[in-house]
Here is the input.
Amino acid sequence: MNSKTPNFDKALDGILKDLKPHSRKCAQCGNDFEIFQEDIKFYHKLRVPPPQLCSQCRMMRRMAMMANILRFYKKKCEAHPGEFPFSQIDETSPHKVFDTNYWWNPDTWDAKEFGRNYDINQKFIMQFDALLKDVPHMAIARYSKQMVNSDYTADSMYCKNCYISSSIGLSEDVHYGVWVVYAKSSMDLLRVNQIENSYDVIDSTHCYQCQHIQNCENCIDSYFLFDCHNCQNCFGCVNLRNKKYCFFNEQLTREDYQEKLKEINIGSRKVREEYKKQFSEFVRQRAIFRAIIAKNSPNSVGDQLNGCKNCFQVFNAESVKWIITFYKNANVRWSQDIVGADDCMDVTIFGPGELCYNVIEGAKVNKAIASYFVSESVQLEYCFECVNCKYCFGCTGLKNKEYYIFNKAYTENEYWKKIDEMKTKMLADGMYGEFLPLEHSFFYYNDTYAQMIVPLNETSAKTFKARWRAIEPIMHSDLEKIKGEELPDNIADVQNDILKKAIICTETGRLFQITEWELTFYRKYKIPLPTNHYQVRLFERFKKKNPYYLWKYPCSNCGQEMYSSYDPAKKLKVYCESCYLKEIV
Here is the structure.
C-alpha cells in the first residue's frame, strides 16, 4: 500500500530505524529520562518520533490544558456581547468563548468560517495558536449528551441535577465531584464509581451512606474508613474485610456500637474535626499500605489499576461498563485516568479509544495525536474541541467535518499532499508529536488539573512559561456576608436564612453559597456546614491521593524490592502484594 505521506514517512523512518534504548535530557525540566525498548515499539506503531520531554513534563503539558478544579469566571460571550456566562477561561485570556449551549448548537455557527491557509515559512505552533485565539471555545467544556439541570459541570455527560462538578457522567444529584461515574445523592467526591448517599469519598466504589472514606469497596453506613471492603456500620477503621460494628478496629456488639455512636455528636464541626485528626493519626500508625493497587491487571505496572493488561506507568485506569458496553485497558504506556484505552501512549482523561498519542480528553476516538477534547473521531492531529470528524489537522471547534487543515476544507488528494509537507516540516523543527507548550494553554496553570498533580509555585511556573494567577479573585456579592468561623457549630442550629448569605472562606477569603439541595443533604446526614470554599475542599481531597509516580524500595515486611506510589519519605508500613494479601485478606 502506497504511503499517503511519503516524505514524512521517509524522514520518520530515518529517525526510528536505528533507535535504541537510551537516556536523554528533558527539554523542559532538564532532568534525564529513559527511552525504553517498549517505548520504541510504540513510536513505530503510532508513527511518532521519540519525545523531547520526560513523562512528567509530557503529562504536565496535557493536564495544563484542562481546567479541572471547579473554578469559574465571568467572561463575555462572543455571540451575545452583552452576556457574561460563567466560564472556565478567565476574562483576561485572549481566547474567546461562546456560551456552551450556543457552541454545541449546529444551527448557530460553523467553525469553518475561521478557516485559513497554512504558511510553510512560519512555525506551525504560532499559526495554530492564532487560530485557537480566534475561534470561540466552550465557556465550560462539556459534552452535549443528555445533560439535565447540570449547567455548572465540566467535561461531563449523561447527568441530572449535578452542580459544580467535573469529569462526571451517568450521575444524579451530585455536588462538588471530580471523576465521578454512577453516583447519586452525594457530595465532595473524588474518583468514585457507584456511590450513593455519601459524603467526602475518595478512590472508592460500590458504597452506600458513607462519610470520610478512602480506598473502600462495598461499604455501608460507615464513617472514617481507609482500605476497608465489605464493611457495614463501622467507624474509624483501617484494613478491615467483611466486618460489622467495629470502632477503630475494635469489634463491638451491635448494641455497644449503637450506644457508642449515640455518644458522638457527629453534627458538630468541632467533634467531627477532632475525629478527623484522631483517625488520620490512627491510619498513619496502624494501617498497612498496599504498595500499589492493581486488580485483574496482568503484566502491568502502575497504581489504581482495574482490568488492565500490558500497561506500564499507568495510573487510575478502570475497566467500566459505560451505558451498555464494557471497556478494558490494554497495551497502554505513560497514561492517567483512562477507560477503555487500547494501544495508546501518553493519554489522559481518555477512553474509549485506540492508537492515540499525547491526547487529553478523548472519547471514542482513534488515531489521534497531540489533541484535546476530541470525540467520536478518526485520525485527528493537533485538533482541539472537534467532534465527529475525520482526517483533520490543526483544527478547532469543528463538527462533522473531514479533510480540514486550519479549519479550511480540502479535497482528499489536496489534504494528504499538504499534510505530508506540514508533518515533514514539523518533524524537522522538532515539534511533531509534542503537545502544546504551557504558555499556549487557555488557562492559568494554578487553575488547571496540572496544579493538582504537579503543583508549581509562581516562580517555577514562570520558569516553564506557564500563565499564573498571582492574586486570588474574590467574587463580589450583594448578599449578606458571614465568616466561615461564625457559622453555627452544629448543623441542627443552622437556619434557612443561610441560603441568603455569602460565606467567606476561612482559608482564601473567597465567597461561596449553600444551595437548598446542599442544606437538605447536610441536615439529613448530620453534616456541619463547611467553612471552606468547595475548591479548597477539593484540594484537601487531592492531597490525600498518591502522586502519579512510582518509587522503588524494599517492602516494610519482607524486604523485597517493589514499586510503590507511597513516598518512602513518609515512612509508612508499605507492603508488597504478597505480604499485603497474607496480612490483610
Summary: The longest helix spans residues 269-286. The radius of gyration is 25 Å.
